[in-house]
Amino acid sequence: MRRSVSIAGLAAALVLGTIGFSAGQNGLAASAQEKMSTTEVKIDNFSFGPVTLTVPVETTVTWINHDDIPHTVVSTDDSKTFKSKVLDTDEKFSFTFSRPGTYPYFCSIHPKMTGKVIVQ
Ligand SMILES: [Cu+2]
After folding, report:
1. CA of 105 to the centre of ligand 1 (A)
2. How remote is the CA of residue 40 from the centroid of ligand 1, in Å?
3. 65 Cα–ligand 1 center, Å
4. Which residues keep their CB under 5 angstroms from ion ligand 1?
5. Does 34 score more than 80 pLDDT?
6. What is the pLDDT of residues 49-89, one digit of tens each?
7. For residue 95, how far is its CA from the centre of ligand 1 (angstroms)?
8. CA atoms within 13 A on the CB side of 66
9. Sign, CA torsion 40/45/48/50
């Protein structure tokens, strides 16, 4: 018990130190976050959100299935750029867009579910 208390104290000191440090580095932290080019599309209630996503080149887009039924993410552009496996609840699929263009996609299990990624 004594040991876990001192670990908690140490952890608190670390957290406080980190907060103090990051407060001084706020500007830097914010700009670093903007450069992280990962974007999420949520699959929920038989729809993709956002339906249309616009991202810069070299962005990794991750689809996450929040429904309790399976879905897929399959591109319908001419070159069939990406195709996920069947995603069960909370499963993810990621694809990095390295070329500009418009990438329409749908769920092959529920073809009325459609979305679009625009890469600039
Ligand atoms: Cu579906």
Report:
1. 11
2. 17
3. 9
4. 71, 107, 109-110, 113
5. no
6. 999 999 999 999 999 999 999 999 999 988 899 999 999 99
7. 18
8. 10
9. negative
| Backbone region of residue 8 per phi and psi (left: phi > 0; alpha: psi in -120 to 50; beta: other values) | alpha
CA-CA distance, 31 to 21, in Å (whole number)? 16
Return contacts of 100-104, CB within 8 angstroms, 24+ apart: 100/57, 101/77, 102/77, 103/75, 103/77, 104/75, 104/76, 104/77
The label of the residue with tokens 């952890």 reads: 11
- How many whole angstroms separate alpha carbon 81 and alpha carbon 100? 12
